[in-house]
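CORE FACILITY INTAKE
Project code: CF-77B
Contact: R.S. (postdoc)
Sample description: multi-component assembly, two entities in total
Requested service: structural model of the whole complex
Turnaround: standard
Below are the sequence entries exactly as provided by the requester. Do not edit them.
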Amino acid sequence: DAKTTQPPSMDCAEGRAANLPCNHSTISGNEYVYWYRQIHSQGPQYIIHGLKNNETNEMASLIITEDRKSSTLILPHATLRDTAVYYCIGGQGAQKLVFGQGTRLTINP
Amino acid sequence: GAVVSQHPSWVICKSGTSVKIECRSLDFQATTMFWYRQFPKQSLMLMATSNEGSKATYEQGVEKDKFLINHASLTLSTLTVTSAHPEDSSFYICSARVSKRDRHNYGYTFGSGTRLTVV
């Protein structure tokens, strides 16, 4: 599994876009980039994943650089309920997901 | 989407007793499940990978005799913490490899976790 690096914490104002960066310079060509988040005392929740192309769903957008060494998760209009720890993980196929330390995102009113 | 039900959500037990945690896939078959442990303000730490019908694969440093994993069916994996001690108090989370894919859940889905407190 690719090792990922994320800032330990970030703050964002409610209603603004939250941009969470992730470095995964060792990711292999067939490894996906997964994003999960964990709200206090709950199991992780799937957000989005991607391989090469940028992706968007109802929760977020994922921008992956052309060299695939980094990506950015974008929450377009952050709300207080988006306060959580966000994990960026490199994974492939039936491999286990190994979590890093993640980014603790705090949305401020 | 694919849902994993984890039970109980919390448990308090006496030191020296054993506790069983169940993880069920509700609307899909999970040939592979994963068990994680999480201490306060720390990330999830993978303990073991459980495969239906075969022995679990434990991560380095995890005592297989203490954390017994059984994956007897395609929808159920259990983690038994044997002879629990206060240092085993933690948040335990299971995850399943999703065999069907939909836009809400791709690859892996997680249970809601079990808060174990050993007194």
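Facility notes:
- The first strand of chain B starts at residue 4 and ends at 7.
- The two ends of chain B are 37 Å apart (CA to CA).
Invoice: internal transfer
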